Amino acid sequence: MRFYDIPGLKSTKEKLMHAIRTGNIAHAQMFAGPEGSAVLPMAIAYATTLNCQNRQNGDACGECPSCVKSMKLIHPDMHYIFPVSAAKGKTGKDVVSDSFIEDWRIFAQTNPYGTPNEWAVQFGGEDKQLNISREESRNIIRKLALKPFEGGYKVMITWMAEYIHTSAANALLKLLEEPPDKTVFILATNDHEKIISTILSRVQLMKIRPFQRDEIASHLVTAHSVEYERAQQIASMSSGNMNEAIKLITEVDDDVPAMFREWMRICFKNNYPLMVDWAEKFGKASRLSQKGLFQHAMTVLRESLLVQNGVPQNEWAVQEEQKFVTNFSRALDLNKLEQLYKIINTAYYHLERYGNPKIIFLDTSLQIAEAFKS
Ligand SMILES: [Zn+2]
Asked: What's the gap in Å between 74 CA and the centre of ligand 1?
C-alpha cells in the first residue's frame, strides 16, 4: 500500500509525506476516522513510505526490497497488532495477534476498509469478544526491545486501538512516553473517543475524513472495474464509507437513484395508496438496499443544500440525476431541504437500530409529503 493506492484525501497525504520528507516523525500517532475510512491504508502507506529506500515524489516507490516486503505485510520491522479472540483452538497466551497473522495479511490486503466484525469472520472468531489483551502488550514490549532488522524505522501499527483492554493500555503507557529509538507507534481507530485519555494525551492525532463521493466512484472504477455511472450511483449510497461501497457492488442490483426519484414524486403528489405499496416493497428489500436508499437521499439533499449555498458540486454522471439534483435545489428552499434532510436522517437512525422498515418507510413518506405541502 502506497499513498498513491488510496483514493483522494490529498491534504492528509501531503501532511504525512511532508512529515516524512522533513524527518519530523512523531513517535506516537493516532489515525482516527469513521468506519470505512482510510485509517488502516493510511497507516500502512505511512509505514511503507517511511522505510522506502527510493521515495518517488514523497511516496513509497513500491519496488525497492523494503517496499516489496512492506506491501506484502511481511517486513520484519513492521509489526501489526489487532483485536483477536479465542478461536482456531488458541487459548491463553496464544490469543494474540501473532497467532492470526496469516489471516490478517489476507484481510488487510484484500479488505483494508473492512470492519472488526468482518475481520472476526475471516479468522473464525466472530462468536467471541474481540480484544487487545494484556498478554498482547507484553508481546509488544518484547518486540520493540529488539533492534530494527533493516536499519530503518520499527513501526508498530495497532488496528482498532479502541479494542485495547485497560490493563494492556496501562502497560503500554510507558512505551508511548519513552519509546525506543527509531520506533513509531501508529494507532488506527474508528472511535478515538473510546480510547482512554492517558493514551490519547500521548499521541499526535491525525483525523481522517470520510471519502467524498467522487473519491469513492473513481476507486470503484479503477480498483473494482465498475462502470462509471454505476460507480457514482453506489458512491451516493455509501455516505463516504468505502467498505459499504465495495459491498454494494455485488449486493445491490436495484437502481436506487431511480427509486428515490420515483419515491419523491409519490410523496410530492401525496399519493397515499402508492406510499403503502412502496412501504410493502421497501420492507421486503435487502437491508443494504434500504440503507442505500436513505443514504442516497441524504447525499442528494446535502448536495442540493450546498448548491443553494453556492458551493459547486461534482457533476453526476447520469444526466437524469444531475437534472434531478438541479431541479430539487431550485424547487425547494433552504428550510425545506433542511427539513427533508432531518426527516430522512432520523429515519436512517431508526433503520440502523433495527426499527420495522415498513413502518419507518410509510411514516417517513407521510412526513415528506407533509413537508412538501407546507
Ligand atoms: Zn521503496
From this structure: 14
Instruction: Compute the distance between CA of residue 258 and CA of residue 318 in angstroms, rounded to an integer.
Output: 11
Residue 317: pLDDT band with limits 50, 70, 90? low
Q: Which three cell numbers stand for residue 79?
A: 509489526
Rounded to two decimals, what is the model's pTM? 0.85
Query: How far, in Å, CA of 284 to CA of 370, rounded?
Result: 25
CA of 4 to the centre of ligand 1 (A): 13
CATH value of 3-207 in 3.40.50.300, 1.20.210.10, 3.10.310.30, 3.30.1380.20: 3.40.50.300
Q: Of residues 83 and 289, which shows the higher confidence score?
A: 83
Question: If you measure from the C-alpha of residue 224 to the centroid of ligand 1, how many angstroms do you get, rounded to a whole number?
Answer: 25
d(CA 140, CA 301): 47
Ligand 1 centroid vs 77 CA: distance in angstroms?
A: 14
Going from the Cα of 56 to the center of ligand 1, the distance in angstroms, rounded, reads 8
**How is the chain split into domains, by residue range?**
3-207, 213-373
pLDDT of residue 52: 96
Give the start-end residues of each E strand in the chain.
Answer: 28-32, 78-81, 154-159, 183-189, 204-207
Rg value, the chain, Cα: 23
